[in-house]
Design goal:
It contains two helices and eleven strands. The protein is mainly beta. The protein has a domain of 73 residues. The strands form four sheets. Strands 4-3-11-8 form a four-stranded antiparallel beta sheet, covered by helices on one side. The protein has a three-stranded antiparallel beta sheet with strand order 6-9-10, with no helix packed on it. The protein binds zinc ion.
Length: 140
């Protein structure tokens, strides 16, 4: 039994499923500002702001009748980041429908009609070594 019980301490908040941080999933992103606005059928919601430090795995749908709804951010952001890098851009605005459904009396299910508007700006790392975790050489 010579296994080491020492584990590196991670400060980053869990992003997807508690095991990974935003930086682990998107190592090429230096920083992000994301504003999410949920749009209901007859409700208005205050926009929520996120950064790379507190990015959730998903956005919860606030429709009280919605089942299994919300928006998973990982595939969504992955696509946005790929498009931005291809186009050499840093700002984006996208909309997505909630993936949940409602229980209805007439039909077993009806699609949840809430949607999310995501507006943000990303700063990509120019250099692979620029990870933010490698200590900068102290000034001589
Ligand atoms: Zn929903």
């Amino acid at each position: 039994m010579s296994d080491s019980s020492e584990k590196p301490v991670r400060v980053a908040k869990p992003f997807f499923g508690g095991a990974t941080s935003f930086q682990d999933v998107f190592p090429n992103v230096a920083s992000i500002r994301l504003t999410v606005r949920e749009i209901g059928t007859d409700q208005k919601f205050e926009p929520e702001e996120y950064t790379e430090g507190d990015m959730p795995a998903g956005i919860h749908c606030r429709n009280p009748r919605c089942w299994l709804g919300g928006l998973r951010l990982k595939p969504f952001l992955k696509k946005i980041f790929a498009d931005l890098q291809k186009q050499g851009k840093t700002a984006f605005e996208k909309s997505a429908l909630c993936c949940g459904h409602e229980e209805a009396k007439t039909k077993p299910y009806r699609r949840c009609l809430h949607s999310f508007t995501l507006k943000g700006s990303v700063e990509f790392k120019k250099d692979k070594r620029e990870t933010g975790k490698i200590a900068v050489q102290p000034k001589a």
